[in-house]
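Repro case for the chain-ordering regression, as requested:
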Amino acid sequence: MTRNVFVLTGAGISAESGLGTFRDTEGVWARFDPMRLATPEGFAADPVLVQEFYNQRRRDARAAAPNPAHAALARLEAGLAERGGRLFLCTQNIDDLHERAGSRHVVHMHGELLRARCTACGTEPVWHEDLTVETACPHCAHGGGMRPDVVWFGEMPKHLDAIDEALAEADLFVAIGTSGAVYPAAGYVAQARAFGIPTLALTLEAADNAGMFEATRLGRASETVPAFVD
Ligand code: BJW
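-- result from build under test --
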C-alpha cells in the first residue's frame, strides 16, 4: 500500500489560477529575459527592474485563488496522514496557493514571494508589501537591503537535505505541471527511479524529462490531479 508520496509541483498547477507558466509559448520567459530578472547578476545590474517584476508577481499571486488541483493535494495530505502515511509536497512555485488550499506542510524549494530576505543578515521575514531598493531590514543593525526570498539561476535551492531524505523514504513519485527543464528538480525523477519507486507525471504537454517517467497522464491539472487523488 502506498503510504509515503512525494509530489513535485511546478508552474502548471497554478496556471488555471491565472498565474503564468515560464516556458509555454505565452509564458513569463517568452515576455521577459530570465537572465535580467532571475539571476543575482541581473539584480545587481538593475535592482529596480527586478523588484518591480517581483512586486507585480506578488500582487498577481495575492489576487489569485487556489484551483481544484491545489485542493486535491490538500485532501491527499489529510487522507495519507489518517492512514499513517505522509505527503511530502515539494513545490518549485513561489506562490502560496497550496497553503491557501489547505496544505499544511509545503516545501518551497525556489523560495516564497511572501517572504523577503535581508542581503546583509540573511533574515527571511514574512513580507506582503512591495519591496523597493530603499526597503531596510527590520531586524538587522547593518541597514541591509531587502530582496525577494526567491531562488534565482546559479543560487542554491532550499531544503535540499529534507528533499533528498523524503525521496529516499517515498514509495511513489508524482510530478505535476513542471517542464523538467530546471535542475536540480528535473533530476528528482531519476533519483526516484534509482530508488525503485513508481513515477507518474501529470502535465499538459510532455516534459523535457518525459522519458524518465513510467506513466504520464496529459491534461489540465484541475482535472488530472483530483482524478488521481479521489
Ligand atoms: C500544465 C498546465 C495545466 C501548463 N495543467 N500542466 C544541470 C544540472 C544541474 C543544474 C544545472 C544544470 N544545467 C544548468 C543548471 C543550473 C540551473 C538550471 O537548471 N538551468 C536550466 C535552464 C538548464 N539551475 C539552477 O541554477 C538552480 N540552482 C542550482 O543548480 O544550484 C546548484 C546546485 C544545486 C543542487 C545541487 C548542486 C548544485 C536554481 C534554479 C532556480 C530557478 N528559478 C526560477 C525563477 C525563480 C522563482 C520565480 O521567479 O518564480 O524558478 S526559473 C523558473 O523555472 C522558476 C520555476 O520554479 C522553474 C521551473 O519551472 P516550471 O515550474 O517547470 O514551469 P515551466 O513553465 O517550465 O513548465 C510548466 C509546465 O506546466 C509545462 O510542462 C506545461 O505543459 C505544464 N502546464 N498548464 C497541467 N493547466
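Ordering looks correct now. Residues 10-12, 15-16, 21-24, 27, 38, 92, 94, 110, 150-157, 160, 177-179, 181-184, 203-205, 207, 220-221 surround BJW (CB under 6 Å).
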